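Below is a filled-in request sheet from our internal design queue. Each sheet records the structural input a requester submitted and the sequence that came back. We keep these sheets so that new team members can see what a complete request looks like end to end.

REQUESTER: design group, bay 2
PRIORITY: normal
MODE: inverse folding
CHAIN LENGTH: 241
BACKBONE (tokenized):
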């Protein structure tokens, strides 16, 4: 007798209550993948999950987590395993940006940027490692073109994203023999709340959060033998200067 049980895949999206993280969760849920989203506040996580569950009821799980705290990340992974029995994909999206001159950036802003954008991803990977070994899963980081192109007022942000790209590429080499794929996505201008920006109709030319979700979807659909380890993505037609 054949086993017709359908395996429902699951994902963890850090910083999934808004912006790119929410856009990724939205696309994955539409494709039948259950998604746990994390936020530093219960209110934000619950509000985003309620909206996502209107797409498919019971497919979004709100979790309170701070990527700067390893134990917090481990609890998120444990909650997913307890709820759904497996973890297939991790999208390490949580990030922050303080674009100020070196003279003006505070010690607190420096540490927050490095701790969230770089150390936080390390913690996410460490916490999810055993679960991804079991599922032969995929770990995807959301970096930035700022991880390859430096600019003024970017000392902390450039440092974090250059580091993240290097970390992800090295992680890919370490984990591929475990059957785990690792990729980094490096977007240019995205219509998000980055650097205290509020998205509006004026951002129509920018990459939209769901566009990054589509790239994540395309990556996890690639044949097992093929790994696009680094994806750079830009707006196709930015405003002329």
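RETURNED SEQUENCE:
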């Amino acid at each position: 007798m054949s086993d017709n049980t359908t395996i429902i895949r699951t994902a963890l999206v850090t910083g999934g209550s808004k912006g790119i993280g929410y856009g990724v969760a939205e696309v994955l849920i539409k494709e039948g993948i259950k998604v746990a989203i994390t936020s530093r506040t219960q209110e934000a996580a619950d509000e985003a999950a309620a909206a996502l569950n209107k797409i498919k009821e019971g497919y979004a799980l709100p979790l309170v987590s701070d990527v700067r705290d390893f134990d917090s990340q481990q609890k998120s992974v444990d909650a997913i395993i307890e709820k759904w029995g497996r973890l297939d994909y991790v999208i390490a999206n949580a990030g922050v940006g303080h674009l100020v001159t070196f003279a003006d950036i505070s010690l607190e802003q420096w540490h927050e940027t490095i701790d969230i954008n770089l150390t936080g991803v390390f913690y996410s990977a460490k916490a999810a490692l055993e679960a991804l070994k079991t599922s032969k899963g995929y770990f995807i980081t959301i970096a930035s073109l700022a991880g390859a192109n430096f600019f003024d007022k970017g000392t902390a942000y450039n440092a974090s994203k250059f580091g993240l790209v290097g970390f992800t590429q090295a992680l890919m080499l370490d984990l591929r023999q475990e059957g785990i794929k690792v990729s980094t996505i490096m977007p240019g201008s995205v219509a998000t709340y980055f650097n205290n920006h509020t998205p509006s109709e004026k951002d129509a030319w920018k990459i939209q959060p769901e566009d990054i979700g589509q790239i994540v979807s395309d990556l996890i659909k690639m044949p097992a033998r093929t790994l696009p380890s680094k994806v750079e993505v830009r707006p196709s037609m930015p405003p002329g200067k």
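SHEET NOTES:
- The longest helix spans residues 107-135.
- The radius of gyration is 17 Å.
FILED BY: M.R.
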